Amino acid sequence: MKASLVSLFLCLAQPLSACETALLLTMDVSNSIDVAEYRLQVDGLADALLDREVMDVIVRGQSALAVMQWSGEGRQAVSIPWTRLRSRTDVRAFAAQARAMPRAFVLSDTAPGEALTFALRQFDSAPLCERRVIDVSGDGTPNAGGDTRPAVRAAERAGVTINGIAIESMGLAITNFYRGAVITRDGFVITARRHRDYPRAIREKLLRELSRILG
Asked: In the beta sheet, which residues pair with residue 131?
């Protein structure tokens, strides 16, 4: 009995593997995203997670990831809940979930302010990690909902970083909007030239977010 109690005590005394980053990946599925573009996003995310360098960074940091989809007012949904990724097997399983993820909304407006507010609330149930990051991707400026900046300020007060992928079709209008009204002061924006460039952009963004490179 004494040996069992000593073993139990030693197990409890072992520190749990620290989680470096809790990363919430959010996807715009508003009316401007067609079926093929949605497929490019989910496949691009899955392929990026399976990239050897990305996978190594995730596992080394014992990171926690979740995925949500958003569009108009009242249209936000967690598609994959918070998941600790402690091994390559965990990452592969998460990537498979992302690839098979059904689209949450169709024929809806673009309300990034409400999406950010919803995203911020998800950290109430997130694993305890050293850093908390929201990754926002989208291809349009708001046509519904409120101002994004109150949610951005709330994130800054809570110590949550917001980064963005701006999916452009013409010029840099969406990139400039993300830089001015979506990301936090310690955040950054990566521009994807149309949806076909999204897989490259999300891989670059994941490496930058999970490697503790900010701004």
From this structure: 21
Choose among 119, 114, 111, 163: nearest CA to 137.
Answer: 163
CA atoms of 152 and 161, how far apart (whole Å): 9
Q: What is the pLDDT of residues 161-210, one digit of tens each?
A: 999 999 998 789 999 999 999 999 999 999 999 899 999 999 999 999 99
Give the pTM. 0.90
Q: Are 136 and 162 in contact (CB under 8 A)?
A: yes
Which pair of tokens denotes residue 210?
């999970």
Report how far residue 73's alpha carbon sits from residue 185's, in angstroms, rounded to the nearest whole number. Answer: 25
C-alpha torsion 126→57→94→205, nearest 10: 80
Alpha-carbon gap, residue 155 to 136, rounded angstroms: 13
Beta-carbon count within 10 A of 78 CB: 17
CB burial of residue 58 (10 Å; 0-12, 13-18, 19+): buried
- Domain ranges for the chain, please list them: 17-210
Q: Which two tokens stand for residue 134?
A: 């929201």
The pLDDT tens digits of the residues spanning 122-131 come to 999 999 999 9
The CATH number of the structural domain formed by 17-210 is 3.40.50.410
Distance, CA of 197 to CA of 214 (rounded, Å): 22
Answer whether 165's CB lies under 8 Å from 136's CB. Answer: yes
